[in-house]
Amino acid sequence: MTITLQVNGVPRTVDVDPRMSLLDLLRERLGLIGAKKGCDHGQCGACTVLIDGRRANACLALAVAVDGREITTVEGLATDGELHPLQSAFMEHDAFQCGYCTPGQLCSAAGMLGEPGPSAVTEDLLDDPDLTPEEISERMSGNLCRCGAYVGIVAAIGEVAR
Asked: How far apart are CA 125 and CA 120, in angstroms?
C-alpha cells in the first residue's frame, strides 16, 4: 500500500506492507533511528513518538493507520538548529544515563506538556493541576528507564513546565 504522511515536517510517500509498524517504517525505511525498539509490545515507551501532537507507541501503530497524519520523532523536536527546551533541560538535569529510553522520554514529555486535565494522582478530578513531581511521574509512567534516571527526568520536565 502507498501512504503519505508528514514526518518531522517533511511530506513522505512510502510503499508499505499493511502489517508494518510505524516504528519499523521510521527506523528501517526512513532512517530515523531515534525511536528505539525496546519491548516491541507497547510496555516500555522507548518507541514513543507524536502522532498529530499526541504521544503514541510507534511499535503498536500500523504504518497504514497513520496515512495522512503528522508524525514527530525525537529528531524533529529541535527547530532551526536549536534544541527543544526539553532536550536542553534533560542535559542540564542529567536526565539520562545510557540514553536508550531518552528519545521516547523526550517525545512523551513533549506530548504530555500539552495534555490538560487530571491524572490518577490528582486530588480534585475537576481540576487542571499544576505539574508537581507526583503529577509528572504519573503522567510519564508509560516510559521506563532501566538506569533509574527518573529524578533527573522529572526535574527536567518540571523546569520546562514552569
From this structure: 9
Tell me the average confidence (pLDDT) per consecutive run of 10 residues in the chain, 162 residues long: 97 97 98 96 97 98 98 96 96 95 98 92 88 96 94 97 94
Residues in a beta bridge with 51: 54, 71
Domain 85-161 CATH assignment equals 1.10.150.120: yes
The pLDDT score that the predictor gives to residue 103 is 97
Contact 33, 27 (CB under 8 A): yes
Of the candidates 55, 37, 54, 94, the one whose C-alpha atom is nearest the C-alpha of residue 46 is 37
Domain ranges of the chain: 2-76, 85-161
Looking at domain 2-76, its CATH superfamily turns out to be: Beta-grasp domain (3.10.20.30)
